[in-house]
Amino acid sequence: MSNTIYIGYYFKVEPIEPGVEILIAELGYAGFESFVETEGGVTAYIQKEEWNASILDDINILKSEEFEITHTFEDIEQVNWNEEWEKNFNPIIVDDQCSVRAPFHDRPNTKYDIVIEPKMSFGTGHHETTHMMIQHILKNDFKGKSVLDMGCGTGVLAILAAMKEANKIDAIDIDNWCYVNSLENVERNNASHITVLEGDASLLKGRRYDIIIANINRNILLKDISIYASCLNEEGQLFLSGFYDNDIPLIMEESNKYGLEFHTKLERNSWASIQLKLTKQ
Fold first, then answer.
1. 69 and 144 in one domain?
2. Is residue 171 classed exposed, middle or buried when 0-12, 13-18 and 19+ CB atoms within 10 A define those classes?
3. Is residue 177 a contact partner of residue 185, using CB atoms and an 8 Å limit?
């Protein structure tokens, strides 16, 4: 594992709603990759090598008179991360069908039970975008399908796809923490037919899938939609999240260029997730 150092920003936000949601979205665009909502706001994490002293200059909500936001920040050592998650990570249940929990939680009575230790990775199911992607997977047929989980984080979406009997699954993330954590969680859930890869969309050359799941952020999605479309089999499906409801026109404008048509939408606290279908190659 690489010796990645993260910087943690501790934000106090008033009013919390919708301040925290807006702040997380803007921080995501700026390069922050993991978030933990707290009683008074949110803690956000960014790799130190991606950080610069002006990282918050373009975060518009910090200049808004509608919100009062203060923050402190510090370097985060990896060795403390598991302990932090054990203190803060509570199990969730999505649509009474899927549970996402840590090994130290009791097993609930759900059809799909995913056990993860998230460490520094994004994707515990607590955030609206992951929650909605889980809902999409629960509502759709994955049996026998080839699947890509792009920006896999903890691997939770790939693991659920495996539980829903997907045939061949790739899980890709650019961050080493996420890559290693996904490997651990795949093994923990006995999902041996998931292949975990470290990298970005350049790894997709020559690969084809029936279903692609991408829960990243708006700017990366806009850049890579053309690649996703080129990797879909005939009548393939693309599930996207990591953006707000008012970002959908921008996402759809780009998607339509490559034969991807809107099918369904989920919305949760102003965050959105959409299902697209490929209509032409």
1. no
2. buried
3. no
Q: Which residue, among 274, 1, 279, 5, has the nearest Cα to 140 in the 3D structure?
A: 274
Q: Between 176-188 and 156-163, two packed helices, what is the crossing angle to 10 degrees?
A: 30
Which residues make beta-bridge pairs with 211? 147, 237
Helices 248-256, 218-231: axis angle to 10 degrees equals 30
Q: What string of pLDDT tens digits covers the 281 residues of the chain?
A: 345 678 999 999 999 888 988 998 889 888 887 788 888 999 998 888 889 999 999 999 999 999 999 999 998 766 455 566 566 677 889 999 999 998 888 999 999 999 988 665 566 667 788 899 999 999 999 999 999 999 998 899 999 999 999 999 999 998 888 898 899 999 999 998 999 999 999 999 999 999 999 998 888 899 999 999 999 999 999 999 988 898 999 999 999 999 999 999 999 888 899 999 998 65
- The answer to whether position 250 is within a domain reads yes
Q: Is residue 241 part of a domain?
A: yes
- Assess if residue 1 is contained within a domain: no
SS (H, E, C) 22-78: HHHHHHHHHCCCEEEECCCEEEEEEEHHHCCCCCCCCCHHHHCCCCEEEEEEEEECH
In a domain, 128, yes or no: yes
- Tell me the H-state helices in the chain: 16-30, 81-88, 128-139, 156-163, 176-188, 218-231, 248-256
Q: Which of 241, 246, 249 minimizes the C-alpha distance to 218?
A: 241
- How many domains does one find in the chain? 2
| Domain interval for residue 30 | 6-76
